[in-house]
Amino acid sequence: MNTLLLNDDFGIGWTGPGQPNAEQALFDGSDTIDAPGSLTPAAVYWFNFPAGSGSFPVSPTYVLQSIENHVVRFGSDRQGLYNNLVADVDQKIQQLTSKMSYVGTVQKSLEMYDEINSRMTDSVTSGIGRLVDADMETTATRLKALETQQQLAIQSLGIANAAPGNLVQLFQ
């Protein structure tokens, strides 16, 4: 909500039955501009709402016509009213710059976290590879030891089977 720039529902959207949505945007449907020389402030609309067709941006000509209409109807000071309108737009530009720098900061943070996550993933993958290699070495060593034991057992059985025949030859 801190970076909401455009809101075409004038900040009065609804989230559910009886629950107003108090979202406020940089361009929130309309603004009220102080009108010097008049007790009635001027309203500047940033969006139009034709029946049933959604919203679309208001033509800059309409904004100027609205200001001129206010000057004629309420007798406000034209120069002061335009100065206040320009000041309002300047303030919005500063707010937009601030919001966009915040978005840039968040984007940079996300890029850093993505890089850290990528490095951690690479490190875990490398570590798992080393564990698998070490486990395969251990398994290969055990297999070689078992093969050696088997060969020794076969040789000792051969010697044991040949021994009685050798004894018999000695006594003959």
Can you put this structure into words, describing what you see?
By secondary structure, the chain is mainly alpha-helical. It contains 2 helices and 6 strands; from the N terminus they run ββββββαα. The termini are far apart.
List the helices and strands and how they pair.
Blueprint: E1 13-16, E2 19-21, E3 30-33, E4 42-45, E5 47-48, E6 56-57, H1 60-74, H2 78-170
Antiparallel strand pairs: 1-2, 3-4, 5-6
Distance between the termini: 108 Å
Poorly predicted ranges: none
Overall average residue pLDDT: 79
Level of helix content?
Answer: 55-70%
What share of the residues does DSSP label as strand, in percent? 5-15%
Rg estimate, integer Å: 42 Å
Order of helices and strands: EEEEEEHH
The strand count comes to 6
For the sheet with most strands, the description reads: 2 strands, antiparallel
Structural class: mainly alpha
Q: Which outline best applies?
A: rod-shaped
